[in-house]
Amino acid sequence: MTSSSAYVIGVDLGATTIKSGIVDEEGRILDQVVVDAMALSGPRAVIRQIVLSIRQLFERHGRAGCRGIGIGSPGVVASSDGAVLYPPNFADWKRVRVADAVRKTFRLPVAIENDANCAAIAEAHFGSGKRYNDFLFVIWGTGVGGGVIIDRKIYRGPYGGAGEIGHVAVDHNGPPCNCGSRGCIESYIGQRYLSDRTRRAVAEAAKRGERSAIGQLVKGNLAKIEPAVISNAALRGDRLAIGILTEAGTLLGCALASVVNVLEIRTVIIGGGISAVPDFVFEAIRETVRSRVLTPHRAGIRVLRAKLGNGAGIIGAASLIYFR
Amino acid sequence: MTSSSAYVIGVDLGATTIKSGIVDEEGRILDQVVVDAMALSGPRAVIRQIVLSIRQLFERHGRAGCRGIGIGSPGVVASSDGAVLYPPNFADWKRVRVADAVRKTFRLPVAIENDANCAAIAEAHFGSGKRYNDFLFVIWGTGVGGGVIIDRKIYRGPYGGAGEIGHVAVDHNGPPCNCGSRGCIESYIGQRYLSDRTRRAVAEAAKRGERSAIGQLVKGNLAKIEPAVISNAALRGDRLAIGILTEAGTLLGCALASVVNVLEIRTVIIGGGISAVPDFVFEAIRETVRSRVLTPHRAGIRVLRAKLGNGAGIIGAASLIYFR
């Protein structure tokens, strides 16, 4: 396949794989390659892999039509010089100017942004956020990430690290969070925490002689419990699963209400792997935000599912070039 | 006294009194009048009192030098048309275009903004915020209000009601808050809540036969307990008072850490009546924010006292004209 018109390459850098795609002006991914990120081999190896993935796309589509390359990266992307700071699960990495390296290699415009921010930007231009000037974006997955769209632009903060909605506390005495604090919403609903809590609840229920659809779905191997299993059990009417997911939604709603009160942004868009939870969870989030925010905000609260799924990273990265 | 050079009038509208002042370009209040707000007599009466206070200043200083009038008002000030919406403790008030009425009367430029935002703006231009492009402003008093300064400008939110830092939750199961939610920081450290909690603690201590400097300071009349008394007792080394104020600082720090993580704004300025607490309370706030925010923010955290005290409202209102 060769794209005759101009396109942009979006690169979604992750700790496991690098996904790079050809993105057209309508935000569609026309082609995509996936390479190993080699995150444990240090920054040079990672940059080499990014370059490799782009070369693969050029081989298939020619580079003449390429208007530029956008990169979404984990970690903080410094406002000052675009350096990527301390991305989690990358070895020997402090402060690396990834975009500069890619720019030198290809002599094309290259832009870089934090990956959660990229996904928020993608939803703003091509997804559920199209109709809203301002929204909070939440990535509910392994961790809980986020982005803040103000007046159709990403709010980066003074140094580029804003939007960490996952580290809004819902209980000052809550469980320890990976970040070093306590009671952050991530420490209740992030994948590992949610799965661990469910495992304990299923084990306790079993001790009381109660059967749970969750236990049946993983055939008794509780190590296999993960959010998709909990959602699945909830859809089968399992009370334990419904309870855990409703609680998760309620707690997320509480964290979001705090942010709504500070920013007066009334639209929330939720993506990420765990956002595939059943509708009743979104209803719990919505109801909690509505009941907790200051009265003038209540009627305007909207909590929506993200639209772009796994492609949001690539599309958002490409958007950095399309909407410079 | 007659000001020979140009000046601006700042009006600080409160539910009890209206304070209006002549403010010079350096943010100094050169003269000030105070009139009854007549908040229980409806919007017309309130506007009449605002006009009266401005006339009194004109009589003393002449109106030739007046470049305009800024008004700080409780309630939400709508972004769309500057209408003041539902200010608490004002009777028969829904949506009133106060600025328009004053503009028509005097045919001068008139600007209006929420009172907490005005105080934040005052600190940004003339107070503790002068050196910072971005800061969170907290008014710690009867309630807990706030304002967000981004890039030296107030962040108003899409509808004008942003900055309600007092309604960030620190415990989703916490005490009921005046706003209808639970566990907002205001419901722990606002004047009434703080005084009530102290009253109960003093009464319980008395039952155990423990004496507290707080009880002595109010001569046993616990109804007289208020934050200044608690601060006073703490300065005398009273353990109960120190404990209560340290806890208040810790909880405020927790709420602020959530906001810092979302906005990446690392400077916090705290004003309002209760901010006259001893230094150890500021230390508790600072330490809590530092220990709870994401690692990259820690070293940059600053928690400062506001500088302008009671005058912040008038000065901030005048700033609306000076820095249009």
Describe the overall structure.
Two copies of one chain form a homodimer. In chain A, helix 1 runs parallel beside helix 2 and helix 5 packs antiparallel against helix 8. In chain A, strand 9 and strand 10 form a beta hairpin. The first copy, chain A, has two domains: 127 residues, Nucleotidyltransferase, domain 5, CATH 3.30.420; 177 residues, Nucleotidyltransferase, domain 5 (2-Layer Sandwich). Chain A has eleven helices and 13 strands. The mean pLDDT of chain A is 96. In chain A, strands 3-2-1-4-8 form a five-stranded mixed sheet. The first copy, chain A, has 324 residues and is α/β, with parallel strands linked by helices. Chain A is globular and about 65 Å long. In chain A, 40% of the residues lie in helices and 20% in strands. The two termini of chain A are 27 Å apart. Chains A and B meet through helix 8 and helix 10 of A and helix 8 and helix 10 of B.
Give the terminus-to-terminus CA distance of chain A: 27 Å
Radius of gyration of chain A: 20 Å
Write down the overall mean pLDDT of chain A: 96
Number of strands of chain A: 13
| Most extensive chain-chain interface | A-B, 49 and 49 residues
For the record, the count of structural domains of chain A works out to 2
Name the strands of the widest sheet of chain A in spatial order: 3-2-1-4-8
Q: State the secondary-structure class of chain A.
A: alpha/beta
Q: What are the segments of chain A in which pLDDT stays under 50 over at least 5 consecutive residues?
A: none
Number of helices of chain A: 11
Oligomer: homodimer
Beta fraction of the residues of chain A? 15-25%
Helix and strand succession of chain A?
A: EEEHEEEEHEHEEEHHHHHEHHEH
Biggest β-sheet of chain A: count, sense, barrel?
Answer: 5 strands, mixed
**Envelope shape of chain A:** globular
Find the CATH topology of the largest domain in chain A.
Nucleotidyltransferase, domain 5
